Structures are given as C-alpha cells and as structure tokens.
Amino acid sequence: MIGGGGRAVSTHVFGHHVLRREQRLPGAPAEVFPFFADAANLEAITPDWLGFRIVTPRPIDMRVGALIEYRLRLHGLPVSWLTRIEEWDTDPTHPRFVDMQLSGPYKLWHHTHEFSPDGAGGTLMRDTVRYALPLGPLGEIARRLSVARDLEAIFDFRTRRVAELLTSR
User: Fold this and answer.
1) CA–CA gap between residue 25 and residue 165 (Å, rounded)
2) Burial state string for 6-41 with b = 16 or more CB within 10 A and e = fewer than 16
3) Which structural domains are found in the chain, ordered by start?
C-alpha cells in the first residue's frame, strides 16, 4: 500500500504523550532515506498554514549533533524552534534518525524516524513523537483544545505530501 498512513495514537503518561504514525513508501529504505536526509524537504512536507521555514543556512550537514533552526506560526503566533539530531544511522537496510527540541513550543519533543523494508520491495516508515507541553494543567487544556488536533492535521498532511513526492520521482 503506497502512501498509506496510519492514524495517530496518543498515549498519556505523566504529562507526556506519544504520537505514532506508519506509512508504506515505494522503494527500498536506501532509496527513500535520502529524501528525509535532506532537511530542506521538511518545508515541502509541512502544511502552508504553519508558515514553516528553515533558518539554518543550507546545505545542512545531517549528522549527530547537527542543529536546525526553524521559524513558524502557530495560530498566528511566531515561534522559533531549535532541534538537534541526537541519532543518525544511515544503515542502508534500516536507516533511522532522532531529532530533539532544544528550544521551542514544547517542554519535550523527541521525534524518532525509522525506515525498514516492508517485505514487498518498499519501505515502512515509522514516526514516533514523544512530546509534552509546558504550563502543567494549562498545557494539557491546550493539548485537548488544539495541539493534539493540530499534530494530527500536520501528520495527515505529511502522509499525503510524502506519498505524492515519492511516487512522482
């Protein structure tokens, strides 16, 4: 199933939440991973309504310790976001990487990207986002009112856009 996106799953444990997505993509992991290894492609798979742009000069040398700075707008409010690549594994059969927020809108943002063979010549891409909001109970109210819905919309868009871009190559 090309471009199939799983539904988001959010699990609540002590103020931390987990969003999981899976998507089947055409091509082996070694063919798919280079698209995700180019940080510039993040702009192409992020919804326009976020006004997302990468501030870090390009090209970005993706490796452990790489810093990537972004600017975006959340509900009209300007947001600066800085992430660091915590893990970077280019194993051709099971590449993966992890980015973690150093500063930005979340108390915790830890995003694991995994790519594995799907057994039919394609790739199963898995995203696991562990996140927590600041402000304790107020953050939880914000999550219930808009943040969880926004994250679902962002990852729904990403699922569609990644499928479009990778099937048109």
Assistant:
1) 10
2) eebeeeeeebebebbbbbbbbbbbbbbbebbeebee
3) 10-167 (3.30.530.20)
pTM: 0.88
d(CA 57, CA 158): 23
DSSP characters over 134-161: SSHHHHHHHIIIIIHHHHHHHHHHHHHH
CA 21 to chain CA centroid, Å, is: 10
Dihedral sign for Cα atoms in the order 91, 92, 96, 99 = positive
* Residue ranges in the chain modelled with pLDDT below 70: 1-14, 169
- For the record, the structure tokens of 39 come out as 């940080």
Neighbouring-strand partners of residue 11 = 18
The first and second tokens of residue 164, run together, are 């479009």
Q: What order do you get walking across the sheet with 77-89 strand by strand?
A: 10-13, 16-25, 123-132, 108-117, 96-103, 77-89, 67-74, 53-54
Shortest CA distance to 132 belongs to which of 8, 19, 41, 3?
19
pLDDT digits (tens, 9 = 90+) for 30-65: 999 999 999 999 999 999 999 999 999 999 999 999
Tokens of 141: 């109210």
